[in-house]
Design goal:
By secondary structure, the protein is mostly helical. It contains 16 helices and no strands. The longest helix is centred in the last third of the chain and has 47 residues.
């Protein structure tokens, strides 16, 4: 668990995590899934089980990042590059939509355009806001965890779970401090867990079989608890809020499923070669998938363009979802490949210009 280089198996998990993100947005923002209090047909319950399988996605993404951050050299340039990448999509996608008359961009007000111009501050992409804050703390956190004893790390993680996860996982009411995992505080907890895995490991997850078993067991628990409270809510009992809680990023079962799935992939061996190289190459563009399809200009439009409303409420939604999700993923990877080429081209021009200017100064 202490290898220094990124492994193709972990990068494959990063790709799967991003596919899960697209699935979640297909289901929720495409209104393809219906509350269990309203519909208990087999197709709808199956979609909720799929949702339970995919809800681990954000936790996985942060666990992967935290796992590598512990040993990586922190670079402020990386933060600048990340910010420029976000701005490329935040401004670029609405600009294209406005020029082509696509979506509702031309009806936007001032607040919407401020979201476009200040994406981190306005949480245009909530994940990037929390991720940016986490990255700013990485040099402190990565050095700090190495100075802590194993026991101290365990106590800190336990304390963070008591603040962000355990109470909301057992209480059937809203908690004022609960942000459902959509904030830096939960990302901090995930970083501490990832660093613990990197530095010490968790012996409970002693093999691929056990790890996958824990993952699917936790997924079944997420679905089962939600189904139970849903049925109680249908009988008039006040458990509608509790029904939704297992599908929050900071629910203890969602965390358990994410850690188990992460561990399962550490036991998967992908030999070096073209397949591994392709996986690592594609994984480097996965963030672009998120920044493209979750842009304010298209986040509730691409499901409509794909024809999701026409397949709601029947089994045909499954093949449609598979095709749509992969199409969105491929489009995002291709878009980020183009973005990367543009950035590299601009960088080469800048280096050439700077070198020429330096040479001119020396001659004078």
């Amino acid at each position: 668990m202490k290898g220094k280089a990124r492994q193709a198996n972990i990068e494959l998990l990063r790709i799967i995590a991003m596919l899960m993100v697209v699935v979640l947005h297909y289901l929720s923002k495409g209104q393809a899934i219906v509350s269990m209090t309203e519909n208990t047909d087999a197709w709808n319950l199956s979609l909720w089980f799929l949702e339970a399988m995919c809800i681990v996605t954000i936790n996985l993404y942060v666990l992967i990042s935290g796992y590598f951050f512990v040993e990586a050299n922190w670079k402020f340039l990386r933060l600048i590059t990340l910010w420029l990448q976000v701005m490329f999509y935040s401004i670029g996608v609405p600009a294209v939509c406005f020029a082509l008359g696509i979506g509702e961009v031309r009806q936007w007000g001032l607040y919407d355009w401020i979201n476009v111009l200040f994406p981190i501050q306005m949480e245009h992409y909530w994940f990037m806001t929390a991720y940016t804050v986490l990255y700013l703390f990485v040099p402190i956190l990565s050095k700090g965890v190495k100075l802590m004893t194993r026991k101290q790390q365990e106590l800190v993680i336990a304390g963070l779970l008591l603040v962000f996860s355990i109470p909301k996982s057992i209480l059937p009411i809203g908690i004022p401090t609960d942000r459902f995992g959509y904030d830096f505080g939960w990302f901090l907890c995930l970083f501490m867990i990832a660093s613990y895995i990197r530095l010490h490991g968790i012996s409970f997850f002693s093999g691929k079989g056990r790890s996958f078993a824990v993952y699917f067991g936790a997924v079944a628990g997420i679905w089962g608890i939600s189904f139970l409270f849903g049925m109680l809510s249908r009988r008039g009992l006040p458990f509608a809020y509790a029904m939704d809680m297992p599908y929050c990023y900071n629910h203890i079962l969602v965390l358990l499923a994410a850690v188990a799935l992460f561990y399962a992939f550490t036991y998967i061996k992908i030999p070096q070669g073209k397949a591994a190289d392709l996986i690592c190459k594609v994984s480097s563009y996965t963030l672009g998938v998120y920044l493209l399809h979750e842009n304010l200009a298209v986040r509730t439009q691409w499901q409509i363009w794909a024809g999701t409303p026409q397949v709601r409420g029947r089994w045909g939604i499954f093949p449609h979802m598979i095709i749509t999700v992969f199409a969105v993923f491929i489009a995002g990877v291709m878009a980020d490949f183009v973005r990367d080429c543009i950035f590299r081209f601009v960088l080469r021009i800048w280096i050439h210009f700077a070198a020429g200017k330096t040479a001119k100064i020396k001659r004078t």
